[in-house]
Amino acid sequence: MECGKARVEELLKEVNAEYNEPIETYRTMIEENCFAQAKVFRLRDKYLVYMVDEEQACVEVVDSLDDARVIAKKFTDSVCM
User: Fold this and answer.
1) pLDDT for res 78
2) pLDDT of 33-56, one tens digit each?
3) Three-state DSSP state, 22
4) Cα Rg of the chain, angstroms
5) Cβ atoms within 10 A of the Cβ of 13, count?
6) Across 3-67, where does the E strand assignment appear?
7) Rounded distance between C-alpha atoms, residue 27 and residue 37, angstroms
8) Contact assessment for residue 26 and residue 38, using Cβ atoms and an 8 Å cutoff
9) What CA–CA distances, in Å, run from 50 to 8, 53, 62, 78?
10) pLDDT value at position 36?
């Protein structure tokens, strides 16, 4: 997982995240001040998982959609515990 602002912005620009809908989106908001979101995008022959909570934004590139789903769900489930 990479959380550097420059790398996150670079990959989001590459998938054109501002205009393209993600393949899947995971969200959680258990408490008023606890929010997490993960979006899965296609990135060439791989998948980009974009994860954001109240403190930071991170990305991870994986080979399969199933792996992307696991990472996205694990991230959103872990933030508000």
Assistant:
1) 84
2) 678 899 999 999 999 999 998 888
3) coil
4) 12
5) 10
6) 24-31, 34-43, 46-53, 57-62
7) 4
8) yes
9) 8, 10, 11, 15
10) 87
Other beta carbons within 10 angstroms of residue 2's beta carbon come to 13
Per-residue pLDDT tens over the stretch 15-25: 998 899 999 99
pTM: 0.89
Residue 29's pLDDT band (cuts 50, 70, 90) = low
Structure tokens at 17: 């995240």
Question: CA torsion angle for 80, 76, 58, 39 (degrees, to 10)?
Answer: -150
C-alpha distances (whole Å) from 38 to each of 28, 58, 70 are 9, 9, 11
> Could you read off the pLDDT of 61-70 as tens digits, one per residue?
999 999 999 9
- Phi then psi for 76, rounded to 5 degrees? -65, -35
Structure tokens at 32: 């008023």
